[in-house]
Fold this protein.
Amino acid sequence: MKILRTIDDIKTYAKSQKDAGKTIGLVPTMGALHEGHLTLMRTAKENCDVVIASVFVNPVQFGPNEDYDAYPRQFEADCKKLESVNVDAVFHPEPSAMYPQGYCTYVNVEGDFTHKLCGGQRPGHFRGVATVVTKLMNLSRADKAFFGQKDAQQVVVIRRFVEDLNMNVEVNMVPIVREETGLARSSRNQYLSPAEKEAALVLSRSLQAAKIAFEAGQHSTSALKAIAIKTIQSEPNATIDYVEIYTYPGLEPIETVTEPVILALAVKIGSTRLIDNTIFGGK
Ligand code: AMP
């Protein structure tokens, strides 16, 4: 596996692959890789000749009081995992290479949907994501890029700017990978103590409870939301940041489930903020 550390490294590598007629798949990550990330890599590998992963904790998508400094960084272990799924190259730049002195260009996706869910809670977050993903798509010359449903709102934002900016990248969304317990895999699960990990099961349990009620005929979104909220509130260690149901991918409010919707939640377990979601409904 090639390790690409500079802007020149990735430009040269992408050009060589393009010149050889290869299709390129991009999988952006912030590292501390787990089975969720590796599933994205495998999907990319099945769909492209060459896979470029990126491991970059992107400073511009973190708010001032968020966990940028504490975010787990374990590049050597990440490389071993990437090699085990036959990733061809990993891009691991310094923040100063991505945002050198004088840097002042940002991709700002406007529109109501960016201010909901995580966009409402984390001002500037999607501006940072859209900016770095645009740069990574340009640098890697990706034909296809792969993202997780775990960050379903992020996929909506990315699809929007790719279309609006006429970028020739196919955006693919891969289902959420969970532990056997139901807990969605996340790099931030590393912050959880064993007791908190147990408490964190309330996220997937609340999604399940709402989905079971939906399948039993409850189609009112406020009733479904109430079921999820009640389940979360049964866990003393959990504090709700948001629990919402919107149409997906439109992210519009809806009273009755008559088209696909997302039930999305962000919950703090102790001081760790976790997100999870499920998409259901429609024909
Ligand atoms: P991150 O490193 O957390 O920025 O995530 C990088 C990519 O992996 C994003 O597209 C995430 O949506 C995706 N991802 C993270 N966790 C999971 C998971 N449990 N299942 C599927 N994809 C995931």
User: Anything to note?
Assistant: Residues 2-174 form a domain with the Rossmann fold fold (CATH 3.40.50.620). The beta strands are 2-4, 24-29, 50-55, 89-91, 144-148, 170-174, 238-247, 261-269, 272-280. Residues 29-30, 36-37, 39-40, 147-148, 150-151, 174, 176-177, 184-187 surround adenosine monophosphate (CB under 6 Å).
